[in-house]
From TrEMBL:
Cross-referenced Pfam families: Chlorophyllase
GO MF entries: chlorophyllase activity
Gene3D superfamilies the record matches: alpha/beta hydrolase
Protein name: Chlorophyllase-2, chloroplastic-like
Gene name as annotated: LOC107820048
């Protein structure tokens, strides 16, 4: 028993830094290449350009789809996505048109999944790097968070049929939302309308993680509307998710505080923002993604369990509440 306990302590030491914070919240050791994928005669089925973040070491890696927020672009999240990819994940981040409706975004997301399912991603990745299409997760921020939920729930139809709700062509194994929002108010919901305002009503069987921000339901300067209003924000998405599901609230941060500093500074007037370091918020969101993906794509749940059980010790910011509902 003592030997096992000692082994457990050594293993734990590798998972946390000297300050006790989980190493998932630090940038990983993998070198990452950023690849711009444009529509071309080779990829004419792509509905929009992609920004791909790829490990460079030879191997096969899980794939994370990431959908940006309203009027934003993947470059706004470069630091966050580099963090996640450095822990050995391939990230595919579409650049949707700012003129697209959310229904069009969901349909385009479905087309991108179809594009991935026919092994097109192999052609754009570094040499000897391959996507593991048996391990695919979807995610997004703000409106993009809702797009991720809608895709995972089967919305978006098919590019080859008139169906409106079908299983995606790739198996999706995990779903993550950063401050997802379904509309500007309860009376102004964006199509497709996926919220039913009934606990556990989502028809989903995959694990879900929702990361909310504590200031996102507040007005900026007392004038600008909230980025994620009550009733249609992260709390409702979590309430409607079936187990296993996780909820992390970044209590002292705002709706856009995980964006890169330059972007955040330009649009800081739009939504309520926290006063603490935005880099720490990005590291927190990135670390939660990594811990969740390791648990549900790689079968390594220790980090996620430790963060859920001891967020005050393992996380770099205040996460309150942290809720875990198991099957």
């Amino acid at each position: 028993m003592q030997q096992k306990h000692g082994e457990r302590k050594r293993e734990m030491a590798k998972k946390v830094g000297d300050d006790g914070i989980a190493l998932d919240f630090q940038v990983g050791d993998e070198a990452v290449e950023i690849i711009n994928v444009k529509r071309s005669f080779l990829f004419d089925v792509l509905p929009c350009p992609l920004l791909v973040f790829s490990p460079t070491t030879q191997g096969s890696y899980p794939v994370l789809l990431f959908f940006h927020g309203f009027m934003l672009q993947p470059n706004c999240y470069k630091s966050l996505l580099l963090h996640i990819s450095s822990h050995q994940y391939i990230i595919v981040a579409p650049q949707f048109s700012p003129m697209a409706t959310q229904s069009q975004e969901v349909k385009n997301a479905k087309k991108i999944v179809e594009w991935l399912s026919t092994n097109n991603l192999d052609a754009v990745l570094p040499e000897k790097v391959l996507p593991d299409l048996q391990k695919v997760a979807v995610s997004g921020h703000s409106r993009g968070g809702k797009t991720a939920f809608a895709l995972a729930l089967g919305h978006g139809g098919s590019s080859t049929s008139n169906a409106t709700q079908l299983e995606p062509p790739l198996k999706i194994s995990a779903l993550l939302g950063i401050d997802p929002v379904a509309g500007s108010s309860l009376s102004c919901l964006c199509s497709p309308n996926i919220l039913q305002f009934i606990p556990y009503s989502f028809d989903q069987s995959i694990p879900v993680a929702v990361i909310g921000s504590g200031l996102s339901n507040q007005r900026a300067f007392g004038v600008c509307p909230p980025g994620a209003p009550n009733g249609v924000n992260h709390a409702e998405f979590f309430n409607e998710s079936k187990p296993p599901c996780y909820y992390f609230l970044a209590k002292d941060y705002g709706h856009l505080d995980m964006l890169d500093d330059g972007t955040a500074a330009l649009i800081s007037w739009m939504t309520k923002s926290g006063k603490a370091s935005k880099d720490t918020m990005r590291r927190t969101v990135g670390g939660l993604f990594v811990a969740f993906l390791k648990a549900y794509l790689d079968g390594q749940a220790d980090d996620l369990i430790n963060i859920v059980e001891s967020p005050k010790i393992r996380a770099p910011i205040t996460l309150d509440p942290v809720i875990s509902i198991e099957e």
